[in-house]
Design goal:
The structure is a homodimer.
Chain A (H helix, E strand, L loop, with lengths): L3 E2 L2 E2 L4 E8 L2 E7 L5 E5 L3 H4 L5 E4 L3 E5 L1 E6 L15 H13 L4 H17 L2 E8 L2 H11 L2 E8 L5 H21 L4 E7 L7 H14 L2 E6 L3 H11 L3 H7 L7 E5 L5 H10 L2 E4 L1 H6 L8 H6 L3 E4 L12 H15 L8 H16 L14 E5 L11 H8 L5 E6 L2 E4 L7 H19 L4
Parallel strand pairs in A: 3-6, 3-7, 8-9, 9-10, 10-11, 11-12, 12-13, 13-14, 14-15
Antiparallel strand pairs in A: 1-2, 3-4, 4-5, 7-16, 16-17, 17-18
């Protein structure tokens, strides 16, 4: 049975006409496997006739599907549950007690909610770290977007905990690989240098190498983490990761606010990717912004992530690009740092490179992960500079149509089944809070 | 002839049912003059029968229409025209040369575009400073929202320029008053302490008092302004304004990044309102954030503005609330500073107070300036805390319906005549750039 969205059939050849691609009006032909087979202003004669599905993208700006390289998707359930608190109280009194009651079913529905929000704001791939990730994978498979999943590995120097985390990590990686779904990938997720033992970090590094999967880690988000690492290990966090074998071209390090110049050069020399998480860093008052200039100079692949909804509180990568470009200018006192083109690259090309997925650009031979932004949205007018409008002016509200892997996930702002998912997610979140606040 | 929007008649009594107001499901009755006559969970029997128009707001969160207290609306035409440049080059090579070619017709269409964007993102009142303000007033009258207009008064110590600016200011104030339109107000607009002579500032203060209109000024946006003022006047900018009589409860000072504690106390003691412009301050790398804590302690009325589209680049007050709450936490290194409730108050109650308009709260006797946010937008789910979702999660894209002065300006995301305005604004902006770049 062929699925349909708003009259368009899935898994068919598609001809997209009159889209604005790189500032020019062009057509795009997508083959039945979801790959971009042709792009240009003059491909209509050759391809329009053979397409099973025609999409009119007049008045739309096409950009690559956005790539969110650091989030905890199911934390969508905690959106607005606790804000404006001191970091430690927020974690110990609010977030952790609630998370202790999380079930796989909660994570499934939280991830479904997150996927709806991501599709609606133009994200087609994300890098996730959380718990019950088999359930998260089920949700992403159904949503039709891409994700890489890791189990948040935390052992706090306990050998028993470490064994359990190793087992959970192995199970997840083997499970995701067994699905054999090109949209779903596995990763190893040592939570952070301050929550994982040296032995744990070493095992994660080795397992990531053996299985050839990403290593996703939090790095130097706060100043106190760095101080703690110096005290315990007599070296800075990035140096510790280096001695544990954790730094390679498979590594994605999130936050990275407190890296010094030498650490930036180390990450560059090892081919590490970093994720900037500006909104979260500002909200949690981490007191330093990612050293964009030093990382760029060191040749580090710099990407963008929203972090989870309890510290942002949304997953809107269009808004996050603006936060990144503005925070960098403000914190480093440079009105020319991180221009719009670089912010867009962080959220597309660089993100796809970090995740090792073939998306991130609208090019022949790549999967069709394409987002259409309504050029008639007031935030996109006038069109002196499309990239500037995308980065500095529009938000997720201007996204009209989203294609991932050649399949149409949202057309004319409509996502089939959206309301049922939102209702169920609200129900699950309410129930979770009730369970957490019921005396045992 | 009765106008209609999406089936709803204007200038009629309206009964809004099942809206979420202050966390409770309530109905609202609006009389034919556009005033809120009743609110409550139990007013249906008394008022529903007599309403000429019924609006179902089930699944909607109602907030007061947002108040943008510092912008240059017609600069929407310059959106994306120049970014990522050094401030002085940006102004002298790009912005000023373009502005030199502006006509009243340009300002009219730029303001029309700005109003569309504001309505779409929930703003029903704004405080504007620019040129050709008679034309701006025409645009706002047609759009149906509220604004206060001032002519940007700049004399650079030239007596001739001062005479001309005084005449322009008088003309504008008299013109706006002659319109006798409760939605349109006039103000006096000395641009800034560094662009207006002492004589100019004194005249503005006196004229604002005589005419009983607001005094709208830029204050201490950059460090160099403060240094320049110290050098020229041997006092800090707020002290200079005090000696010129410019500080009163009619005064709105924008930016205020570089105020010291004594200046904060001075502003508080004079009843001055300030506008925080976080996005603009970040983008232009002004290197300090408005001292929110000190201003709050001094009892200053703190409001929120987007600034113009060439330095933001949008007019989305929902996004701006997030920027304000996050920038304050980050810059002042306090994760509890400027909580969500205060950010919402800045954008509503405090803004209305600064502009001297009776809106800013959904209360009996006030004009119905009400914005309905779609509670089924994914950024609003789950609803653990509506105010948190509004400030930290949703953007303008979640606004569904907008009422100003009892008239429905947008219903179900539809604004009548929007596309014609957007097309014309694009045309006008393109033409402006062409004129500016044509050798004479």
């Amino acid at each position: 049975m062929t699925e349909k969205i708003d009259g368009y059939e899935q898994d068919t050849t598609k001809f997209i006409q009159n889209a604005q691609v790189n500032g020019k009006t062009q057509d795009i032909f997508i083959d039945a496997k979801g790959l971009i087979q042709a792009i240009g202003p003059d491909i209509r004669k050759e391809f329009r006739g053979q397409a099973e599905c025609i999409i009119d993208a007049s008045g739309m700006v096409a950009i690559p599907g956005l790539v969110n390289t650091h989030t905890h998707a199911a934390m969508s359930l905690l959106r607005g549950y606790a804000d404006d608190m001191h970091l430690q109280e927020w974690l110990s009194e609010k977030i952790w007690p609630l998370e202790a009651h999380l079930t796989g079913e909660d994570v499934y529905w939280g991830t479904k909610l997150a996927c709806i929000e991501m599709i609606r704001s133009g994200t087609t791939a994300f890098n996730d770290m959380y718990f019950f990730m088999n359930d998260a994978a089920r949700a992403v498979d159904e949503a039709g977007i891409r994700a890489t999943f890791c189990h948040g590995f935390i052992d706090f120097d306990s050998p028993e905990k470490r064994e359990a985390e190793m087992a959970a990590t192995k199970d997840l990686v083997h499970h995701i690989k067994s699905l054999n779904n090109p949209r779903l990938k596995a990763a190893v997720g040592p939570h952070a240098p301050y929550t994982v033992s040296r032995e744990g970090l070493e095992w994660c590094a080795e397992f990531s190498k053996t299985e050839d999967v990403m290593l996703h880690i939090h790095l130097s988000e706060t100043e106190s983490e760095v101080a703690g690492c110096m005290e315990k290990h007599h070296m800075r966090p990035a140096a510790l990761l280096e001695t544990c074998g954790c730094l390679s071209e498979r590594t994605l390090a999130a936050h990275c606010c407190w890296l010094d110049d030498e650490e930036c050069r180390l990450l560059g020399s090892r081919g590490v990717s970093v994720a900037h998480n500006p909104s979260s860093n500002m909200k949690l008052a981490v007191n330093r912004a990612l050293p964009y200039g030093a990382l760029k100079e060191a040749g580090v692949n710099i990407t963008l992530g929203t972090d989870g909804c309890s510290s942002n509180n949304n997953l809107d990568m269009l808004e996050e690009m603006k936060f990144a470009a503005l925070l960098q200018k403000f914190f480093w006192n440079s009105d020319t740092l991180l221009p719009a083109e670089e912010a867009l690259a962080m959220a597309t090309t660089n993100g796809a490179k970090a995740m090792g997925i073939p998306t991130g650009a609208i090019q022949i031979g790549r999967p069709a992960d394409i987002v259409f932004i309504d050029a008639k949205h007031p935030t996109m007018i006038p069109m002196h500079n499309g990239v500037s409008n995308i980065v500095y002016s529009c938000t997720g509200g201007a996204v009209d149509t989203v294609i991932c892997d050649g399949r149409i996930l949202m057309a004319d702002k409509c996502i089939p089944g959206e309301y049922e998912i939102l209702e169920k997610a609200q129900e699950v979140a309410t129930d979770l809070v009730a369970r957490a606040n019921t005396p045992k």
